[in-house]
Every structure is written in structure tokens, then in C-alpha cells.
Design goal:
Elements (H helix, E strand, L loop, with lengths): L6 E5 L3 H13 L3 E6 L2 H11 L3 E5 L8 H9 L5 E6 L4 H8 L5 E4 L4 H24 L4 E2 L3 E6 L2 E6 L5 E5 L2 E5 L4 E4 L3 H7 L5 E5 L2 E4 L5 E2 L3 E4 L2 E4 L2 H13 L1
Parallel strand pairs: 1-2, 1-3, 3-4, 4-5
Antiparallel strand pairs: 6-7, 7-8, 9-10, 9-13, 10-11, 12-13, 14-15, 15-16
Helix pairs in contact: 2-3
Keywords: Phosphoprotein
GO biological process, one term: phosphorelay signal transduction system
GO molecular function: DNA binding
């Protein structure tokens, strides 16, 4: 993923800051698809233009905050988000984390900080793209998955999977007897596994819902493994349990 092919949408209601960002990003070789002051406009723009990166001010002045805008966009788009913020309090930071941003840039920013942050995000995007390519070698059928083990593809029944844990661009697939390390992201596994049996409960965990032993307020247990429940996943988990 070459730098000149990376497109960025700027969502910032301070037009002086937005214009400065646009000039600096263009000088660094990125394509700026637009400069927008409102979240509602950003939602439409992303749907129509599909930029790679969303450079988003957290504290927008319109009806939607930057975090609310990001949540709406992430429902339908796998887009990398970098937040711009002058507010670094814990409550705002924790709310922003629920949208799984790639990075934060604190205002006032300088060109070097901007350049390095976006370069790191682009590298993450490269790694995720490569992991997705590698994941094409993982075969998921109706009741089983074939995983590479000791140089060959081995069958693993889906009912034997306890949970899957993320490890950067890899997944660790846990069964009662063995664990497999897969060269793909947790998001790829989430898309491929049947939603009737598997549910994401945290940014780092997918569980086989039939293996759930204990459900507590902020965590669950499968066997002796304590797994945290992310706030943004709790409602989905509860709804899935009600339909089992």
C-alpha cells in the first residue's frame, strides 16, 4: 500500500486547523478527499468516496460528536480512524477507544508528529492487508475449519473451539487439547465464523457461545479462562445469549 495511494478525509470544524492539515498532508504525498466540519457530512462522504483514513476531531460542534460520527461510519466501513483532540481526559479517551482508533494526535500538533503517526497507521494497514491475504488459506466450512498444522491442513470441528484470542495480526485458536496460531486478524475470523455459534465479546476475544460457563458483569469464563467483556460488545453478547 504505497503512500501516494492513501486517501484521507479531514473532519474538523476549525477551518484554519483543517486547511493547515490539508496542506501538510498534501505535501507529504497523501490525497485529501475532503475537508468537512460536520459529522453528518462525513458519513455521506465516506459512503461515496471510501477514503482509507479518517482524520477526525473528537469535539465537533454539530449534532454528532467525532466519536458518534466514527461509530456510525464503522458500522458499514472498515476505515482507519485517527482522532485529533485537545481534550485528553480519561472519560473522553475511554469513549473514543470503543471505536478502535488507530491513533490519537494531540493539538496543537506539528508536521513531524503528523507525519510519523500517519506513517505508522499506514504500516498497520499494510500488515492487516497482508494478514487478510494469508487468511485465504484458512478454509471454514459449515461445521469445521481447516488449519495449517505441522505443514499440512488439519480438520478442526467448530464445536471443539473454546475461544479465539487476538495477538496483533495473528489469532490464537484455543481448544481443550491444543492451540493453533493463525496468520489472520480477529476481524477476519469474526467475518468467517458462523454468527450463530461465535460472538465477539472484546476487541481481543471471540468466544464459542455454547462453551460459556460463567457470565459476570464485566467478564465471562470458559473453563478456567477469564475473558473480559468490552462495553461496546456487551449488548450483542446478551442478545445472542437470549436467542440460543
Amino acid at each position: 500500500m504505497e503512500k501516494e495511494k492513501i486517501s484521507i478525509l479531514i473532519v474538523e470544524d476549525d477551518m484554519i486547523i483543517a486547511a493547515n492539515l490539508s496542506i501538510q498532508l498534501t505535501s507529504l504525498g497523501y490525497e485529501v478527499t475532503g475537508i468537512l466540519p460536520r459529522g453528518e457530512e462525513a458519513i455521506v462522504h465516506v459512503r461515496e468516496n471510501r477514503p482509507h483514513i479518517l482524520l477526525m476531531d473528537i469535539n465537533l460542534k454539530g449534532e454528532l460528536s467525532g466519536i458518534e460520527t466514527a461509530k456510525a461510519i464503522k458500522k458499514d466501513n472498515n476505515i482507519s480512524i485517527i482522532y485529533l483532540t485537545a481534550n485528553s481526559d480519561d472519560a473522553t479517551f475511554n469513549k473514543a477507544k470503543e471505536t478502535h482508533p488507530k491513533a490519537f494526535i494531540t493539538k496543537p500538533f506539528n508536521k513531524l508528529n503528523l507525519q510519523r503517526t500517519i506513517a505508522l497507521v499506514v504500516e498497520q494497514m499494510k500488515d492487516e492487508k497482508e494478514s487478510s491475504k494469508n487468511a485465504q488459506h484458512i478454509e471454514v466450512l459449515e461445521d469445521r475449519i481447516f488449519v495449517r498444522h505441522n505443514g499440512r491442513m488439519e480438520k478442526l470441528l467448530l464445536q471443539d473451539i473454546l475461544y479465539i484470542e487476538a495477538d496483533r495480526n495473528y489469532c490464537i485458536l484455543i481448544t481443550p487439547k491444543i492451540k493453533h496460531i493463525l496468520t489472520c486478524t480477529l476481524k477476519v475470523m469474526e467475518e468467517r465464523l458462523p454468527k450463530s455459534s461465535f460472538v465477539r465479546v472484546h476487541r481481543s476475544f471471540i468466544i464459542n457461545i455454547s462453551k460459556l460457563d460463567v457470565l459476570a458483569d464485566g467478564h465471562l469464563e470458559i473453563g478456567r479462562k477469564v475473558i473480559p467483556i468490552g462495553k461496546s460488545y456487551k449488548e450483542l453478547l446478551l442478545n445472542r445469549i437470549r436467542t440460543v
